TrEMBL record:
Annotated source species: Amycolatopsis viridis
InterPro entries: Homeodomain-like_sf, HTH_TetR, Tet_transcr_reg_TetR-rel_C_sf, TetR_C
Signal sequence residues: none
Stated name of the protein: AcrR family transcriptional regulator
Keyword DNA-binding: yes
UniProt keyword annotations, A-Z: DNA-binding, Transcription, Transcription regulation
Domain of life, per lineage: Bacteria
Keyword Transferase assigned: no
Annotation: DNA-binding region: 31-50
TM regions (residue ranges): none
SUPFAM superfamilies xref list: Homeodomain-like (SSF46689), Tetracyclin repressor-like, C-terminal domain (SSF48498)
All residue ranges annotated as the HTH tetR-type domain in the record: 8-68
Amino acid sequence: METEKPLTPAAERILTVAEELFYANGIHAIGVDTIAAEAGVTKKTLYDRFGSKAELVALYLRRRDERWRDWVHGYADPRAAPQRRILRVFDALADWMSMANRRGCAFVNAHAELPAADHPAQQVIAASKEWLLDYLRQLAAEAGARNPARLAEALLILIEGATVVASLDVLPTAVAAAKRVAKSLVDEATAAR
């Protein structure tokens, strides 16, 4: 992940407002006029600081990705059994979704709104999902899974599916249900032959 330059106080206000509005309402529904007005700056200031709405969207997602990674790492207990560390990712997701993240995955939502492959946000979206897959693969290897890549793929699919289903209120306990399935997969993948 690239290191970003420190933002001015005005730029931080713009980014904070943009993050809240983009996630709550969608990226296309929110224009730069609204963001500038809510942040108490001019459109010129917004463009001077970010260059374009597309770059602002990419930075919003980078910041969200940094928070998500920190959140997940905060649930990793190095003293816990490796199998338990895998399941802690589901605990992290459950708590993340209970903390004003009821619209599901910001990256999936953004991907649906921004289909152009050359949009600057697309690299951020892909990097976020690739990071989680790599992290799950690492945890699976540490747990002694026979095929860490295959287990990580299944776990990522469970996480993504649970996020969508929970955000739709189809199954409010989707993350807990996914965790139960994940436990079975982890147990099977790490069982001695």
